[in-house]
TrEMBL record:
Residue ranges annotated for the Integral membrane bound transporter domain, each copy included: 183-307
The keyword Transmembrane helix is annotated on this UniProt entry: yes
Entry-linked InterPro entries: Memb_transporter_dom
Protein's name in the database: Integral membrane bound transporter domain-containing protein
UniProt keyword annotations, A-Z: Membrane, Transmembrane, Transmembrane helix
Organism field: Oerskovia enterophila
Keyword Transmembrane helix in record: yes
Cellular compartment(s): Membrane
Residues passing through the membrane, by range: 6-24, 36-63, 69-88, 126-146, 167-189, 195-213, 265-282, 294-315
Pfam families tied to this protein: FUSC_2 (PF13515)
Annotated membrane topology: Multi-pass membrane protein
One GO cellular component term: membrane
Chief localization: membrane
Amino acid sequence: MSPKKIGLVLLLVAPMVALMLSPWKHDGTLVYLGMLPAGVGLLVGRGPALVAGPLTAVCMAIGVSLSDWPLAGALFMAALGACVGLSAVKGWHGIGGFVGPQTAFALIGGPLVALPSGTVGASTSFGALAAMAGWVAFGGLWTALIGGVLTRGMHLPGPKAVPRRAATYFAVALAILTGVATYVAMGWIDSPNSWWLLLTLFVIVQPYFAATLSRTAARVGGTLAGAVLAGLVAHFLSGSPGILSAVALVLTGAAAWAYLKRPYWVFTLFLTPAVILQTSGGEDVLLSADLERALFTAAAAVVAVAVLAVGHGILSSRSRTTT
């Protein structure tokens, strides 16, 4: 890598690292959450990358605003799932695969934001909500601008566009699954980690059934291994939050490399601990929640595959009948 690109990489991560090493580390987490969808957006183009951050910020703000209303939250996530599915016509569903989980985190996970008066929940005031959205949007825009310069001239293999018929089925399936899962998570499960149900659905449900099966096996295995890795990192570095953030950043970089060069399970192995380290509390909270995350991931995967298998069977039988 040339000195110029190294400098751009350092510039790209500088705001997040600076916040993570300051009393406003929770704002660094929000910047990180905005960077992820914009980074995937760069695989599609600079325009989608520029939109990804502000779109994530708006969706997260809506999610926080609906956090006390399970039915409204479920309807919103169903609508978002449908939009992600339909965006596959343009190949933008990879971006949606990050916008959706970030929104689920805002809706269920209780994001925190650091204000001059102290660290508070994003739902406590309009100022906290606006600050959360602002940091997320900043992370996305910064990534799109600096990342756009960094990746100029590079061939990036982004998600491929799919036919409208497949995108429509994808949208319906994702809307139903995410809507029901959101209602269950908000109404029946008393755990802020239940947003991992939604995260799992957004990343494993794909436009084609065969791709969903492949993604499911890779996701479950990679998530379980990544959760163990996060627990080990948190155990040995529990007294060094700055180093934890640096490790999360390195893992994210490794995930970006794996996304382009390696099988999906390797990407998941690196990204899972990065997300866990950035969105969890201290070591005790992280370790106690690891089992919950594993259970939520496995449960969502099993239900999704079962439902989609039934739908795939019905569509296949109808196709044979019409021919």
